[in-house]
Structure formats: C-alpha cells, structure tokens
Amino acid sequence: MKFAIAGGTGTLGKATVLAAQERGHNTVVLARSRGIDITVPEQVTPALEGVDAVIDASSVATMDAKESVRFFGKATRTLLAAEQEHGIGHHVAVSIIGAARINAGYYAGKATQEKILRGLSGGWSILRAAQFHDFALQFEDRYAFANIRLVPRMRAQPVSVDEVAAALLEIVEGGPQGLAPDIAGPQEERMADMVRRYLSVKNSPNRALEIPLPGRLGRGLRDGSLVAGPHARLGTQTYNEWLATQL
Ligand SMILES: NC(=O)c1ccc[n+]([C@@H]2O[C@H](COP(=O)([O-])OP(=O)(O)OC[C@H]3O[C@@H](n4cnc5c(N)ncnc54)[C@H](OP(=O)(O)O)[C@@H]3O)[C@@H](O)[C@H]2O)c1
User: Fold this and answer.
1) Where is the NAD(P)-binding domain (predicted)?
2) Which long-range contacts (CB under 8 A, 24 or more apart) does 81-89 make?
3) Which residues form the domain of 204?
C-alpha cells in the first residue's frame, strides 16, 4: 500500500515511515522541509496522488491554545479535503490520552482535531498515545533559570515511539476503526523524576524543580488525565530502558 505520512520528519513520523517501509509499504512524507505545508491545499492535493491512506503525525510547537487550534484545525481540514478529492478512505490521526478532556493549551488543538474526525460519518481512526519517552528532553534547556530547570507537576505513562509507530501501522493496515484503544508505556512516572534521571545520565549540573501549573492545564497534568485507563494497550519499553539507549 502507499501511505502519506504528515509530519513524517518528526519524532513519531520518522519512526512511522521506517515501520511502514519495513513492512513493504510505499511512503510519501508531507512536511514543510519536504516542500509540502499541510495547511496549503495546493501543496497537499498533488502529493496524495496514488495514496491509499493518510497518517497524520504532524505537530506545532506551541503551548498557546489558539495557535494549536488554528494549526490542527486547518491541517486536518486541508488533509481531509485533499483525501476526498482523491477518494482516499482512511485518515489516521495521532492524539494524546486525556487531551480532549483537558482541552487547554496545546491540548486544545488536539481536542479540535479529534472533534473534526469524530464528526465524520466514517473513514477515520484516532490513536491516543501517552507522552513519548523523549518528552522529558524538552525540559533540558527550556524553562531555565541558572542551573534550575522548571518542570510542571505532571503524571505521565511514557511510551516508546517505535511501539506507537507499530500500533499506527496495524491501524492503517486494518482499515478505519474510529477510536482505537489508547497506547501507553508499561508504568506511570512523574515528569520531574524523568527529567532528573535524564539530567543524571547526561552528567548535567542542572537540577529539575517541580512546579504546579495553574488553571485547567495544570490540573489536567497533575490529576492523571494523561495516564492510561484500564482498557489501554501497554507497550513494553520502560523509561529507564529507553534512558539506557541514550548513553
Ligand atoms: N511528543 C509526544 O510526547 C506525543 C505524545 C502523544 C501524541 N503525540 C502526537 O503525535 C504527533 C507527532 O508528535 P511529535 O512529537 O512526533 O512531533 P514533532 O517531532 O514535533 O514533529 C512535527 C512534524 O510535523 C511537521 N509539520 C509541522 N508543521 C507542518 C506543516 N504546516 N505542514 C507539514 N508538516 C508540518 C514537522 O515537519 P516540518 O517542520 O518540516 O514541517 C514534523 O515532521 C502529534 O500530533 C502529537 O500531538 C505526541
């Protein structure tokens, strides 16, 4: 089969392209660095020639709800319109466990993306994943004050990006299924501890300071909304096992 992978140069996208190719599929990557902006119909439509299904693993680097809603709304609608022109019957989106419930900051965009797809009569799948193992790395040099790294109080259940990519391949090969079972890692972690362990294996002089964020976003990060429920599928690689690969 031939799959278009939006965001195929990103963390999950790269792993998904690799997994698809290993399973003998053809892939086309939709990313600005490959000359295709998925919010621009004139660039997306020709790129979907001969494509059987679209996997959307794109993202926008923002914590601003308006910006996130704008990006995921425009990107999803543009992809769906181009898919319709080509008669492509399966759109697979990657979302985040708990994002639709929190619906604030970056997660507001994921809520919008999910809402657009859930409003369709069919032809879609959504895979909600927990944070990838490398999520903790963003706190290495952002939110810095001298050697202090600020980390939100956050419960997470980090998952291997390769295991998420493998789950995506199963979904895209199997056909539209609506909301797929969530995927998370094998155990719950506290984000500040994940950052501390990362700084430690890197022999960094920096220290992680956990802070509770205000508002709906902060509450959602703290209250376990991002952690797998009882019906989630659990990956096998722990955060510590992943850390060992980073040495
Ligand atoms: N990271 C996590 O922990 C996590 C957890 C669960 C779910 N997710 C979801 O998984 C998806 C992928 O996340 P990620 O962390 O792998 O993302 P990422 O590494 O930030 O990659 C983002 C990708 O989107 C592409 N992109 C951004 N704007 C674009 C545009 N206008 N047109 C075309 N391509 C565009 C980027 O390529 P260019 O810059 O070249 O355009 C890049 O390939 C997201 O939907 C995210 O919400 C992430």
Assistant:
1) 36-172
2) 81/41, 82/41, 82/44, 82/45, 82/47, 82/48, 83/48, 83/54, 85/45, 85/48, 86/45, 86/48, 86/49, 86/51, 88/48, 88/51, 88/52, 88/53, 88/54, 89/53, 89/123, 89/176
3) 2-244
Residues framing ligand 1 (Cβ under 6 A): 6-7, 9-13, 30-33, 37-39, 57-60, 94, 96, 110, 129, 131-132, 135
- Counting the structural domains of the chain, the total is 1
Residues 165-194: pLDDT tens digits?
999 999 999 999 999 999 999 999 999 999
pLDDT tens digits, 45-66: 999 999 999 999 999 999 999 9
CATH number at residue 101: 3.40.50.720
pLDDT of residue 54: 98
Q: Which of 59, 76, 112, 132 to mutate to test the pocket of ligand 1 (most atoms within 8 A of CB)?
A: 59
